[in-house]
Design brief:
Layout lengths: L2 H26 L6 H30 L14 H6 L2 H8 L5 H6 L1 H14 L6 E3 L1 H6 L6 H10 L42 E3 L6 E8 L19 E7 L2 E9 L1 H5 L3 H25 L17 E3 L9 H13 L7 E5 L1 H8 L17 E2 L2 E5 L8 E5 L3 E14 L9 E13 L5 E4 L1
Parallel strand pairs: 2-11, 6-13, 7-9
Antiparallel strand pairs: 1-11, 3-4, 5-12, 7-10, 8-9, 10-13, 11-12
Length: 433
């Protein structure tokens, strides 16, 4: 049964269920429904909801269409346009009470959203944020604002220690563009040469050879070669959605300061990016998460006898897992958290040698070691990280919810991003813990 036939079947069943629900509703207006009829009505309501969701899913799939090479193209914005792209304008233009002026002010932002939608072929829940915008923002101070801030703090002749004299007149020199950033985990994947597949359309299936034919010998007295076949499998990537939301006050939305713009962009983008980074290592495969390296069936394992302090022989054992699987190639590297990293810096190779397990330049057995607290305590990964695939569908999907905090004048901003993680060869990775 193709998608059109399935869609027709769902629609016909929905019409049938709604007709039966109408019959029961008509009867309820004349007499009480029996317990069986009430139970049936409840089941009909649940079934209609399911049928509706299925139809939406099929219709969404049909809109995706065939893959086009330009789906990976960037929006073609120059540096000035990237700096001027305003999430605040886009939020105001997407709000339910947006005026024509709000939409006119966000003309560039709305045009870029439409461009992403056209290339992907899938409508956003709200509006699209181009990936190049979210990844390139460098928040720059306006010259005039910078100069006036300097002038405000240049010199004060009155006594600033006497409140009744002059201290009461001294304002706070607020420096929003110098906001102290939150200390966050360092990204790991960006340092490990993982394979990124961006601008994807629909599900992705990559053929994979899992077995080879077997050669044979023919003796001098004759004989035949036995038949053998290659075996193949598939590595798949399916869109999984990660999201974040935050509430902004009405007053904050009225601001146009570069610092507010920078704060909104960086915070939302970094939260989503860090969660995707974490899932690449520790995604469980449940609750909508992708399957990370640690939970991929078939990876190698190495036990650390003394907790967060691996020995040289244990690290060599991790290398041996990869080598014995013929996977000791590509972008080989270690990734671990700060405690393991620090302990290896202080672990001598052997007494009197003066050499430590982890060199001061951050290499272990001649390979790069990436330190990030995205990794679970006491764990260390080793492998060919080019065999880790990160699939991305479109940009960031921004939605504006004006209802949740309406009584306080707040607006809830939600950002969704579709991505997935897959390992090409489980044998390319080993986990020590």
């Amino acid at each position: 049964m193709d998608l059109n036939q399935k869609l027709t079947s769902f629609r016909e069943e929905e019409v049938e269920k709604r007709s039966r629900a109408a019959d029961l509703a008509g009867k309820a207006g004349k007499e009480d429904l029996t317990s069986d009829e009430l139970s049936e009505l409840s089941e009909i309501e649940q079934r209609i909801g399911y049928l509706h969701d299925q139809q939406q899913g099929i219709e969404r799939s049909q809109k995706i269409g065939a893959f086009s090479p330009n789906v990976n193209d960037k929006a073609g914005m120059n540096n000035k346009e990237q700096r001027e792209f305003s999430m605040l304008k886009l939020i105001k233009a997407s709000a339910r009470d947006a005026t024509r002026k709000d939409r006119d002010d966000a003309a560039m932002e709305l045009e870029l959203s439409a461009d992403v939608e056209k290339r992907i072929g899938v409508a956003p829940r709200g509006v699209y944020l181009p990936m190049e915008v979210m990844g390139s923002w460098q928040g720059k101070e306006d010259y005039e604002e910078k100069r006036s801030a300097y002038a405000r703090g240049e010199k004060r002749d009155l006594n600033a220690t006497d409140f009744t004299g002059a201290a009461a007149l001294i304002g706070v020199d607020f420096r929003p563009n110098q906001m102290i950033p939150l200390l966050r985990n360092a990204m790991a994947l960006t340092q490990l040469n993982a394979t990124y597949l961006d601008g994807l359309v629909g599900d992705v299936a990559i053929p994979k050879q899992t077995g080879a034919a077997t050669a044979g010998w023919i003796g001098s007295d004759g004989g035949t070669i036995g038949e053998s076949d290659q075996t193949v499998g598939m590595v798949t990537l399916t869109p999984r959605t990660v999201g974040v939301f935050t509430d902004y006050s009405r007053q904050l939305r009225l601001q146009s300061s570069p610092s507010v713009e920078n704060f909104i962009r960086q915070d939302l983008a970094q939260v989503v990016a860090l969660e995707k980074d974490r899932a690449a290592f520790h995604g469980t495969g449940s609750g909508g998460q992708p399957v990370g390296i640690a939970n991929t069936t078939g990876i190698g394992t190495q036990a650390f006898a003394t907790g967060s302090t691996p020995t040289r022989s244990e690290v060599v054992g991790m290398r041996g897992d990869i080598a014995s699987a013929n996977a000791l190639t590509g972008s080989l590297a270690f990734a671990t958290e700060s405690t393991v990293y620090s302990n290896m810096l202080d672990t001598v190779v052997d007494a009197g040698s003066g050499q430590f397990l982890l060199s001061e330049n951050g290499t272990l057995l001649g390979r790069q070691v990436v330190e990030s607290n995205q990794i679970t305590d006491g764990q260390m990964f080793f492998g060919n990280f080019s065999d880790l695939m990160v699939g991305e569908w479109g940009g960031y999907d921004l939605m504006v919810d004006p209802f949740t905090g309406a009584t306080a004048g707040n607006v809830r901003i939600l950002i969704f991003h579709s991505c997935d993680i897959a390992v090409r060869h489980a044998e390319s990775f080993t986990l020590g813990q």
